[in-house]
């Protein structure tokens, strides 16, 4: 039944080039895998060494459709390298997923200036720099695909609502939400063929979440991580956490031609957590 | 295969004889769903049915006594319900707060609010009885006017805001009950439906009216019906399995902020 090449075909990103930061694990990796399955050429970045076994394993699984670049999203030099690599390898870019991120919890009076600056650098500067350096190429590339180019900035439900001892993460993800609306309005006003939207996952089974839960256990908030999973599930109307694939499918929708009128908005994928 | 990602699913679309509803009927059918759709206009219903292969049932969405027969028919013909698109809407008799008549108010609230409530209520009752347990996806067609009310369309704006809360309340109820039924609201901007096209053509200066509608979005155009239908198909599919209780805007950045100088 596959209608390859049509908007309802099974490989709806055929001929498109995508870039995913933080692509080695969690939501980023699930997104890379989905994009490859949909026929896209994907560049992924992360902090792991180019020759690391993790990188090799991921690239082997993805075959010829993906390439990896070690890049720090807070570094302008690294983004220039990403741009150069993309231009040399593909000459175009249609999809940018600013996914790399980190978390930080703690009482506001205990957060050090250094750790505040670090989370802002990764979660906010990283999104800004990725956008800044890749937008000119995306504007060129966007004219030859239906729906134009698409930027998906991975925020969080913590960019929509506050939570105790999450203020720095809240601030960083809230910044991503409004940065995205600003660039969406800007691209549209200038008739640049780039859509921009923020994505707000709820609690997702990822290495970042597991590490965060473990820190809460270590600080005595809960006895074990399973208790935190049960607690969060209980507060989520659908009664469970998400799998990374369920976030990747929303990112794919925003990247696809089906979302050609979706720009400047926020897609919440949280199992109803913030509807309450 | 994504091309038939709705294969085996049964869908109900209210107000499916024209506009976003008709476009969604066609899209869901193209992706493999068996679609039943409703409306009051039998001629238009037949036309959409012939085009899409979907089944038309003449039906008034805010008439409670019209519902049992429709739902019995879906159960008898298909034995399940997976997707419900509460789409039927009206702005007939609407006006500003000073001038609206009680009949105008009741009419719009009846279709847009009570009609949506009855759709969601009946859909959940049907989905509860699915052979594989209580599963499904309900999509409520709200409007960007839920967030940005119009002065000259009081009842429309109010009802579209109300059904966002309705979708959230229903989503939480389904969660509380342990049903795997998701409920979401979509908030489209101006969509170029036949209704809007007629409005443009019958205005004093069609070109200026068209430009005014198109100019509301920073993208400088209205949405196509197909673009909204694609959004509904995505939310109806298992791809959106963790999206529930959300209000999702598809407005070409119209409500994202200010256009700037």
Q: What is the element layout, followed by pairings?
A:
The complex is a heterodimer of chains A (276) and B (261).
Chain A: E1 17-21, H1 26-37, E2 41-46, H2 53-62, E3 66-70, H3 76-89, E4 95-98, H4 113-141, E5 149-154, H5 167-189, E6 194-201, H6 207-218, H7 225-234, H8 244-255, E7 266-269
Parallel strand pairs in A: 1-2, 1-4, 2-3, 4-5, 5-6, 6-7
Helix pairs in contact in A: 1-8, 3-4, 4-5
Chain B: E1 10-13, H1 19-30, E2 34-39, H2 42-52, E3 55-58, H3 67-78, E4 83-86, H4 102-128, E5 135-141, H5 154-177, E6 180-188, H6 194-201, H7 206-215, H8 225-236, E7 247-250
Parallel strand pairs in B: 1-2, 1-4, 2-3, 4-5, 5-6, 6-7
Task: Characterise this structure.
The complex is a heterodimer of chains A (276) and B (261). Chain A has helices at residues 26-37, 53-62, 76-89, 113-141, 167-189, 207-218, 225-234, 244-255; strands at residues 17-21, 41-46, 66-70, 95-98, 149-154, 194-201, 266-269. By secondary structure, chain A is of the alpha/beta class. Chain A folds into 2 domains: 17-204 and 243-269, NAD(P)-binding Rossmann-like Domain (Rossmann fold, 3-Layer(aba) Sandwich); 205-241, no CATH class. A 7-stranded parallel β-sheet of chain A has the order 3-2-1-4-5-6-7, sandwiched between helices. In chain A, helix 5 (167-189) links the parallel strand 5 and strand 6. In chain A, helix 3 runs parallel beside helix 4. The longest helix of chain A is centred in the middle third of the chain and has 29 residues, at 113-141. Chain A is globular. The model of chain A is unreliable at 1-6 (pLDDT under 50). With 261 residues, chain B is of the alpha/beta class. Chain B has 2 domains: 2-188 and 224-250, Rossmann fold (3-Layer(aba) Sandwich); 191-222, no CATH class. The longest helix of chain B has 27 residues, at 102-128. Chain B is globular and about 55 Å long. The model of chain B has no long low-confidence stretch (mean pLDDT 96). The interface between A and B is large, with 48 and 50 residues.
